[in-house]
Structures are given as C-alpha cells and as structure tokens.
Amino acid sequence: MIIAVLLKLVHDLNIFFFGKLIMEENFDYIIVGAGSAGCVLANKLSENENNSVLLIEAGGKDTNLFIHMPSGYSQIVPKSNKQNYGFETEPEDNTTGRKLYWPRGRGWGGSSSINGMIYIRGHSSDYDHWRQLGNPGWSYEDVLPYFKRAENYEGNGDLEFHGKNGPLNVKKSTRDDDILLDKFVEAGAQAGFPITNDFNGKQQEGFSRYEHTIKGSKRFSSARAYLHPALKRKNLNTKINITVDKVIFENKKAIGVEYIEKGKRIFCKSNKEVILSSGAINSPQILMRSGIGDPSEIKKHGIQVNHKLKGVGKNLQDHIAVVSQFQCTQPVTLHRSASFLGTMLAGIKYLITGTGDASNPPCVGGAFIKSDPGKEIPDIQIHYVSLAMQDVHGRSGVPQEHGFSNLVYLCRPQSRGHITLKSSDPNDDPLIFPNYFSVEQDLIDTRNGLREARRVFMQPVFDEYRGEELKPGKNVNIDNDDELDKWIRETSETLYHPVGTCKMGIDDLSVTNENGQVHGVEGLRVVDASLMPSLIAGNTNAPTIMMAEKISDHINGKAFLSN
After folding, report:
1. Pairing verdict, β 264-276 and 22-32
2. Does residue 497 carry a catalytic annotation?
3. Is the pLDDT of residue 303 over 70?
C-alpha cells in the first residue's frame, strides 16, 4: 500500500512537471497506431455510424513523395527520420556484439508505408500451427476468407485463392526491364527446385515473381487502402504526432489513454475499448508503461503493477538474413539507377511518365525452398535483387559495380528474444534483445539455406553474367561450417519482420486470447503483428492486415467468415 501511494505521488509530480493533465473528449474506440492493422480497424469500426472512433498516430500523414514511389523506400529505410523509427538492438554475442539496425514505419500506414511491398501470406501450415497453440479460429481454412476479403487482385495466379473486390490492391509483378529476373527463376529450375505460379496459391514452394501491394505505379499501403477512404466519415477522428504514454485503468478495466501533445498530458476516455495497434515493438512498451507485464521488468522503472502478465515483450521472433552475391559481367542490372545521377534520372522519369526503375521495387522475384531435402515444407525464403547490395539496408551507399544478390533467411526460427523498457519515459526507445541464433539449429538451417541459394547462382543460365563472388567472398570457405557460421554471425541483418511480443494463446507467456483481448483485464485489445504466436513463412504485412480484418468482425459483433 505504501509503495502504491509513493508511485502515485511520483506520477502526480511527473504530471506537474510536464503540465496539467487535461481531460479531452471521449470516444467509443481509441486505436493507438495508424499502421498496417490500425488503419484497417479505423475503417472497419467507423463503418458503423453509431461508433465514435479515434485513431492516434505517433508520426505524421503519409505525404512524403518517397512513400508512394515504389523504389522510394531506399530513401527512407537506411536512416532514422520522420517516417522511420530507426531502432537499434542491444549488442549480443550471437551476432558478434553488433548493434543491429531495425527500421520500423512511423506515420500513417506504419511499416506498410516504408516496406518492400512484397505480399506474402505464409504457408497454410503456419496458421494451422497457430490453432494448435490454443487459438481457435486461426487455421488456414479460417483465415483464407479474410485474406480474400481484404484483397483486390491483379494477376494470373491461382484465382480461387484471391479476392477481387477488397480494399487492398495486390499486383503480380510484370516487370520487363530486368532481364536477370527470369534468369533467376530459370536457375531455380536448373538447380532442381520447383516453379510455382503463385506463392499465395495452392503451392508456396518454388521460384516465381512476387506479388506487391501496388496500384498503378504507386505503393498501396494500409493507409491508402483503408484509412484515406474512411477519412470523410464524421465519426472517425485522427490525431497525428502524438505520443501515447499509457492506458488508464479503473480497477481492471481500461477506460482511456494518457498521451502527450505539445508538452501537455491529456487523458482521453474510451467508452468501449482501447486497442493497441502500435506494432511488435511499441505495443508491449505501452502495456509495460501501463503497469501490465512482468512485475520484475515494470517495478524497476517506478511503474505501479496493475496486472501481472509475464509474457509482455517476450517471445520476440524475427527473420534474420544473409546474402549470396556475385559481380555481374554485363551492365544489365539495377546499378544503372543506383548512382546519384542514375537515381535522379529514374526519379524524373517516374514523375513524368510513372515508369522506369523508380516505378518498381527492386525485389520482384523470390523463392521458398527447403534447406534440406528431408524437411517436410519449405523453411527458407530467398529474395532476389538485381543489385550488388553493399548491405541489406542500403546504409553503405551506392553499389560500386554491377551485380546480383540473393537475400536468404530461415522462415521459422526457434530462437526467441525479448523487448523491455529502457525507462518509464515514453520518448525513450526500448531495449531490444533479438537473441538470434541462440538455438543452434537456426544457424545450421541458415547455413544450409545460404549454400542452396548460392548454388542457384552457379547454374548454367548465369554463366554469361556471373563474375567474381562478392559475398560470402573468396576469403570464406563455403564448405567449411565454422568459417561460414562465423561469417553469418558477423554479417546477418534483420529483414524487418518482428512479431510475437504480445502473443495470443493460452500458455503462461500468452498476453491475449484469440481475439486480441488482453488476459485478465477488460476493454483492452492488442491487434498487430505482436499477436502472432509464431512467425509465418514470408513477409508479415499481409497477415497483419488479415488479422485486423478478422478481429474487426469480433469487435463489431459479427459472425466470422467461413471459407
């Protein structure tokens, strides 16, 4: 009791120094985060004109030109800016003590406004696994109707798996100015791998062109698909450049949020629910600052424990990639647009005609393969890029020469990390511990996957283009496990898919039930990638949008769709 009184005093003093706590208007639903999931919820909940909805975003509107230009993410991702949090992990021995760079979207659309636009749903077994973990309603048969409802498909894939009238435009790549793209697919066949017509159809395994969230020649983010069409509704309110500190409780019921705007602390009341859609990094932080989480993590920052849930911030999973890369002996790669002058010319051409290198994401082809023939399903994803990338994020500047690359990662790592608070200050970044390669099998499978991806480049179709090996390079013996493992630990980087930090389920580390409702409290949900109990085989934007589509039906009291 004494401790609680002291903590309350600290909070009151904090308000005093920040400014008086102001009571604002109230809404039925307060959604925190206008990212991939939050934009969906803002649209779906405001469809009912009797619902008043507030969408709060830490960043700004999606007005930056580079957001909408498909190649523009190369101008946003490499450094922290208004559209990108630019987080860094804590140093860890498994990745040779490096601070790894973790870009995450900030502003309308969240990471769907800065990602590579690749639309991948995952393998059907990924969702069956979610159901087996204690999440009824999340089998592949359950989620497929929501993927289809969300989608407006432009392509020649397996049409029975796709939707035609949904808000999210999905376009199969028809790029015809990258001659090595189809060489990559042909090389996969020469290496003995299957070809697939549609990664999101009846067969994920194999090599193919990607599908992207693009409409015409512009990125089609969650903000463009869901938020902008709903902005005209009188019952939808939005706030930008707002820092949400915490959820406010009355006993065990969430009754609103406390946020900071221009130095003032403001309390905004929710009549029905507070919904955290701030992503796998920010949602657990808000929960912990609200006193929900592992008491040992919360108390050390002077935060009163409102509800014990030791899984908050735990179960962190991510895809970590390595690169197979060769010099190209002919000037046929995207290096043509990578220099300063080339970038300027590509940008001008795009602005005038909507065509050219700037109208396409560089990564338009990929593959799902098995790291070992004994695997039951594909466990490795390959992203092909007609560019000799100096680093995964493009932070090292312009490539020095023509080349081509395979980015390789293990789809379902067993390693688990965690996220925790650095302090109680909502402006502080969290402490991120990915714990990559803490399970040795992850390293073994990544190693084998890298060798398979490199073998693709050794096929006859690349003979007239393949020059010197750039990565891992001549100084690394590709056949020596120890040398290759050392290089993987020294060079691997995130491929931007953190999930799991507020996972849904029934075990001791679960944070919510299968509908995103936080265990043990009322009026509070989490709806974003942090809900995923395990990583899917693929990019995580499509499933995040699907999850918000599905849970919106539960919030609105509608029956779930059936296939």
Report:
1. parallel
2. yes
3. yes
